UniProtKB/TrEMBL annotation:
Signal peptide: none
Keyword Chaperone: no
Membrane-traversing stretches: 12-34, 136-158, 187-208, 321-346
Annotated protein name in UniProt: PepSY domain-containing protein
């Protein structure tokens, strides 16, 4: 069997299986791209603050400190203003999540159904709601989509149109349905090859991040400065919380799950900026508040700096609104390719029945 025929069979059979999962992931991912805007629009009473631009970061920290003192050991996680959320939210150990005014700590309400919907949408996007193995199903399908479907598709396109490349980008809008369907499949596939390649490659990171980091570690210098310190006289919890770093804003606090767990303070370069490189800092402290580790983008290894960019690249946020629009459109393409590809297959089957041999 000729190589071209083998590649075509791989393209179809892998496309009809893993391509379906990739289509579902793409569609759910496209929907999630606009989560910040939809969440803010549907929940202004929980997420929005009228005077947010006039508030200094110290105000958020003082309110968070006051709430931490008030609710003490009942807190599981605390999230300070970030992206669409201009308020402070607390996830309690009993599973409830409440929202508070980030200026005065006033109770605003509990988590709404629409916020839960987008949280579930993200879980579905990453795991298809399949317990334990769901993330491996989506992650593996993404890798297969990347290595077999996209690459075999670009190979078929190139072998067909290598002598007249411009024809590979043409759609005859007034042609018959079968021809239009074929043109749409080939043009969308080649036009979105790079965006889909990028989204697939970055998407698989969230399942196989340890392997990605191991591969990226070849870019690190042999001597890496350890960002670990030990406090002989650890500060109080409130002091850590109120500590203002001009380079970063405190984004979240993860409390102890059990006696053997640690506190984690996560920082982001800017609360509301949603484009450019993702720069973060994370402080981990023990139950007696001694510093266990401190990682800072400014001093981090090259591999970790690159790994930090997988999320903004995957969502398109690294390129601002343009990037998000591109990811949204690209997220719809796998389903379109799946439908048009299946119709091409059915059309060929009908033709073979009519003219066997």
């Amino acid at each position: 069997m000729a190589l071209g025929n083998i590649v075509r069979k791989i393209h179809f059979w892998v496309g009809i299986t893993c391509g379906l999962v990739a289509s579902i992931s793409g569609l759910s991912g496209a929907m999630y791209v606009w989560q910040p805007e939809f969440s803010a629009a549907l929940n202004p009473e929980l997420l929005k603050m009228k005077n947010i631009d006039s508030l200094e970061d110290d105000v958020f920290l003082k309110t968070a400190s006051s709430l931490a003192t008030t609710h003490s050991d009942s807190i599981s996680k605390m999230f300070l203003p970030y992206r669409e959320q201009q308020t402070i939210s607390i996830e309690f150990k009993n599973g409830k999540t409440n929202y508070y005014n980030s200026e005065n700590g006033q109770f605003l309400g509990e988590k709404s159904a629409s916020i839960v919907f987008f949280e579930d949408l993200l879980k579905f996007h990453r795991t298809l709601f399949i317990p334990k193995i769901g993330k491996y199903v989506t992650g593996t399908s993404t890798i297969v989509f990347l290595l077999l479907i996209l690459l075999s598709g670009i190979y078929i396109w190139y072998k067909t149109y290598s002598s007249t490349l411009k024809n590979g980008f043409k759609i005859k809008w007034k042609s018959k349905k079968k021809k239009f369907n074929f043109d749409l499949h080939k043009v969308l596939g080649v036009s979105f090859f790079i965006p889909l390649l990028t989204i697939s490659f970055t998407g698989a990171y969230f399942t196989y991040n340890s392997y990605y980091k191991k591969a990226l570690s070849v870019l690190d210098s042999r001597t890496i400065l350890k960002q670990e310190t030990q406090n002989k006289n650890p500060p109080s919890f409130a002091t850590i919380l109120l500590d203002s770093d001009k380079s970063y804003d405190l984004r979240a606090i993860y409390y102890l799950k059990d006696a053997n767990d640690n506190y984690r303070f996560r920082y982001i370069e800017s609360r509301f900026k949603t484009q450019g490189l993702r720069k973060t800092k994370e402080l981990t402290v023990s139950t007696n508040l001694k510093t266990i580790s401190l990682t800072d983008y400014r001093n981090d290894a090259t591999s970790n700096r690159l790994a930090a960019q997988f999320y903004p690249v995957h969502t398109g946020e690294i390129a601002g609104l343009f990037g998000r629009i591109l990811v949204f459109i690209a997220g719809l393409i796998p389903l379109t390719l799946y439908i048009t590809g299946f119709r091409i297959y059915l059309s060929k089957k009908r033709r073979l029945r009519k003219f066997p041999g």
